[in-house]
Structures are given as C-alpha cells and as structure tokens.
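Record filed here:
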Amino acid sequence: MKSKGKGIQVLIILFLTILVGCGNDDDSSLSQEQDNTNLKTMLEEITKIAESVDCTNPDDWSFTSIGSKACGGPSGFIAYPLTIDTDDFLKKVETHKTAMKAFNKKWGIVSDCFVPATPIDVECVDGKAVLVFQ
C-alpha cells in the first residue's frame, strides 16, 4: 500500500506542477517597459490599418472603442474604413483591448475613471477620417 500512496503523491505533485505552470497565461518574464512597447506596437499597427485608406465618403467609415482603462471602459475610439478586412481589423482591436486589460492588472495600473465621449459619426476632412461628437 505504501507504493500506491507514493504514486498518488507523485501524480498530485505532477498535476499541481502542470496546473501552476499552465495557469499563468501572461508572460511574467517581460518587464513593464517591454509590455508597454508591445501595446504601443499593436496600437501602431491598428492605427496604420485604419489610416491606410483616404476618407472621401463618410458612409464608408465606422468607428469602434479601443484600449482599456484600469477603471474599466475604453480609453478612446478609432475610425476605420469599411473597405478593409473589418473582421481582421476588429480582431486586432479586441486583442489590443484584452492585452491592455491584462497589462493594467499585471502592473497595478491606476487611471482616471473619466469615460471618454462616444462619437456619433465620422466625417472626412482633407482625406482623413475625423470622429464627430455631440
């Protein structure tokens, strides 16, 4: 019976080791500066895609929330052309939002709890999409 008990202990230890090893999805080896750089890179890619098309007709544009404040809610909004692969674009925006939430939690980020105004429309000004607020 002693060998059976040791086998169970080994299985429990193995299980707990795997559980602890897999339970941490964030890459805790990254510094706050590296995490922040990754977020900036993601946002730059999103912005580059959103600005890849000249705005000539506001009906061809929409907007979405972007980022995540530590208090909750978005950090802002971004206009994007409907002529791009919107599914891919919105997935990138969601990935950035999720990464920012994780960053805020991991690093104990504190922010103001100001809720940014939600745009009501997009207009085109000199070929650029501009969000319209009430």
In short: The CA atoms of residues 84 and 107 lie 34 Å apart.
